[in-house]
Fold:
Amino acid sequence: MSKKKDGAGSASEAQIAVHWKEEGYVHPSPAFIGQANMVDPAIYERFGLDRFPECFKEYAELLTWEQYWHTTLDTSDPPCWKWFVGGTLNASFNCVDRHLGEYKNKAAIVFVPEPEDEATQAITYRELYVRVNELAAYLRDFAGLKKGDRVTLHMPMVPELPVTMLACARLGVIHSEVFGGFSGRACGDRIADSGSRVLITADGYHRGGKLLDHKVKADEAVAVAQESGQAVDKVLVWRRYPGRTVSETPMVEGRDYFIDEGLAPYLGKRVDPVEMAAEDPLFIMYTSGTTGKPKGCQHSTGGYMAYVAGTSKYVQDIHPTDVYWCMADIGWITGHSYIVYGPLALAATSVVYEGVPTYPDAGRAWRIAERLDVNIFHTAPTTVRMLRKAGPDEPAKYDYHFKHMTTVGEPIEPEVWRWYYEAVGKSEAAIVDTWWQTETGGFLCTTMPGLQPMKPGSAGPAAPGIHPVIYDENGEEVPAGSGVAGNICIRNPWPGVFQTIWGDRERFVETYYAKYCKDPKSTDWRDWPYFAGDGAMQAEDGYYRILGRVDDVINVAGHRLGTKELESSALTVEEVAEAAVVPVVDEVKGRAPDIYIALKPGHEGDGGTDGRVVAAIERDIGKIARPKHVHIVPDMPKTRSGKIMRRVLAAISNTMDVGDVTTLANPDVVEEVRVLVQGEEKVALKEGPEDLKRFGEES
Ligand code: WTA
Structure:
């Protein structure tokens, strides 16, 4: 946790100018408002703190409950809040079975393979019901999975992924999906942490024009889990093309099974959805933190489902007649909440696209939108930047019309926002900029699209029932609407908030609640603000601008990477003595990691160190963590107490002012490192965004 800073220092630091100015409003069209699910401004009163927590019944009532709850919020064991206590339900039933009456013949999932000559597959709600049941029977009877067991999924963007999640949910099995692009080792660590004895994976998938061998990662994952003492006795493999294997990796006798073969005896089987208590966990989703070890965020069944159903209906404006395409990967929280559980709970048609949005050319995404007549589109600023760079004029060539678009995962620059609005949305779509986190289950800040105007670069006001507060480093509240930056927290619990870090309650309390807890003995939720780990400011109109992480986490292309994870990976390279990772501005990814390496004495560096560091990071985490530059430096700039000054390195990587370095133990090294990175000539310094100025201060 961070150290307290003196008041004067933190006030001046907090009053810093933010990196882009307040923009004017853009209003949603009358056509959008006319059809929107939420046009009643009284929703904010209904969800006022004086109506808390009962207000959230409105979301819970969107679900079908086996048994109604007796206590809306139980705070007896803070900060592990329990929502809808006494209530029972099943998530798979809510996403599938209950739609069979009205919507059985409607597409639940439309799968778009990356190869354009391969047919699109529409899976109706009826078909989804059949597949989920058959797989649930197989998982129960063949793999021996039952309520409360954890199972790790390491799957790409294929329809079998939501089918598997829903089959697990049907049985009460807690799924932990690991992003398919993560390495086998990263998957193995998560298998061990969650205690899974079954891994569900795929033989391969298409990405960027290549058919990738994915099964190879399973072997490594199992070996890594075994090293940590977690045995995996079954690896269940979905084949991209049933009956034919696209992976060259051999199957291990008695451990590995092709699901398409194994399903034969279960065809036509039905499995009753297991009645789950509202607070029984639905899934675990790992995310990076400030230490090397990823955190398993544990989400509940009742609270989570209520929150994603409510926000999907009102913020995403999903109607059952909509064709909704969220381009995120299901391996991240966005995909869980807003490709699978939220949209399917509302009987939407959810598009699952296997590949890269610009493959084989910059028009691909818009061809998909045109062909499927997608009318709700959801993506991250990094993808918007990529699509714009690849083909700024492409969207105009295709005949599609979005009524609604979402941006998520990073701050979006107003200029990028405008291209998204004008070119992609053809100035017709309402945009919501949604700020939230793996931990929060669903949106925290966003405009309500039928009620409020958009403001480019601002995430908007808080979602109904979410009551943020900005604190300074000393725990003082920054005045609301003052435009002064500080740490954004949420005053109250909400149903979508995660329950704990799997197996590490202490870290959960320490990371999210200890900093601003008013009384650790209190069972009153008012004493337990949720610390999000983001810097933010609130403008006079109540809209929040999110400034980025205040911890050692970098947001690379909308994905959180813990700098410590990269550093510990680099330290596995023999000659590396010290490693420091800092964010560097990247035109498309927003931020990318730059890594600084100091070698052990006696190692001059043989020119191969960079390659070995990159290889280690790809092995331990995956290609998404690949550093932009590897800088081999004579020494790290350090404080007198020996702490590496990451802020100084971040300033050098981004040609920003390094500030006063005279108090360092080795001030001369700063200039040496600067010359190494920027060259002999002094280059013009840049102002640089806020998160970079503060980077590393908290550790
Ligand atoms: C950042 C993704 C600005 C933020 C849903 C947060 C954002 C982290 C926004 C969570 C946004 C997310 N504007 N920043 N609209 N949305 N962030 O867990 O720093 O992958 O803490 O969840 O992304 O990333 P995560």
Remarks:
- The chain is about 30% helix and 20% strand.
- The mean pLDDT is 94.
